[in-house]
Give the backbone structure.
Amino acid sequence: MTARLSLTTLPAAQRPAVVPSKIGVVHLGLGAFHRAHQAVFTEEAAIRTGETGWGISGISQRSATVREQLAPQDGLYSVLTRGLGDPSLRVIGSIREVLTAPEDPAAVVARIADPAVSVVTLTVTEKGYRAAAQGGLDLTDPEIQADLAGRAPRTVVGQLAAGLVRRAETGAGPLTVLSCDNLVANGPFLRRLMEDYAAASTVGKLLVEQLEVARFPASMVDRIVPATTDADRDEAAALLGVRDEAVVVAEPFLQWVIEDDFAGARPGWEKAGAILTGDVAPWEQAKLRMLNATHSMLAYLGALRGYETIAEAVRDEELAGLANELMTIDVMPTLTPPEGLDLTAYGASVLERFANPALKHRTAQVAMDGSVKLPVRLLGTVRDRLAANAEPRLAGLAVAAWMVYVAGGVDAKGNVLELDDPQSARLQKTLAESGVGRGTQLNGPSVVDALLGVETIFGDDLRDNTVFRELLIDQVGSLTR
């Protein structure tokens, strides 16, 4: 039996160059993306600066799986990078602690309140913020209400609030809270949620005082990180000589753009290649509307055609052409690119990255959580094109593909398409009330009217826009034919 990865079993030549001596960063949402992105930047920054006080305490928001993977491995794991050549492997040691929020919420609060911690980063996905359709905190959410009622917090907003209040009580100093999720102006967005929570909280005064000195910089992150498979673990074991149950897979491309607005000390991420800037918005919008929107389009259209991976979808010449047209015809006219970013070249690089055959990024994985992804990835482009009296034909096609995916429930080969979405119950109820059931023959107008009526996704403006409605009816009809 192959030995498990650890500091003692790993050959010296493959050990991390730096194993941090203490914890200075807390990360909420310890999934594969963080381990392939921010944790890598943090380790590289430690190597380049010689500062060893920036170990990460990673917080798993749901299950104990990551802790069970990392704890026997001394927190070590590997990043298996797959490009066009041979794969490469690097062992990362920047994560020094793993906590599971549902098991020990008090420990999470204590770690956020630790005076040695000056930065909290987040990758909790769009749905983890529990935002209302209007953009503020959803104060009707049962989990938010339970945190506000005084239980040991289980939501990220509740965890941050409790940690900030504890810092106020102990004089631990101001905190930088750095969202790394795919949200428009993610830092200011999170600050607003915290302000809404404070307004509804019994400890609002202390929390407001901490929010006044805290910083919530915006950021943009980019790296394709597909779900790890058993085959990936086997390949990592062959390369390492030991078994790594926590290996993550990633493409070679790696980017992090951060608003340079911090409340105190931080890792020297710029030494590791991160871009610090006064304005993240142009970078963020280009990435969300070009890369992320195209990813979603290919996921839905590809899944409907029976493709298992994004790379297979891009190899379909028709789908690749539609993805390119989405970027060039609908998206680019809505963007003001940051200095140094050629949008045409960026669009070509997006499709090139998606076509990487070594990255088996499943269409079903990208298709998850469409109700929260569509508003930030596609609907801004739709609104901008409609405002310019232009028909958002390609962006509309991506939305129509999502509608058929949700309502139809099967691909061209008859395989069931899993609906993994935080609003799945509401979506299916809305469709059923309109006489549409998953797996049945679809009626275009019924599907479009039912789903356009979900105001938490489309709002009143798109629901009532006749140009958009007619466009969707035509495209849903084409896709179902």
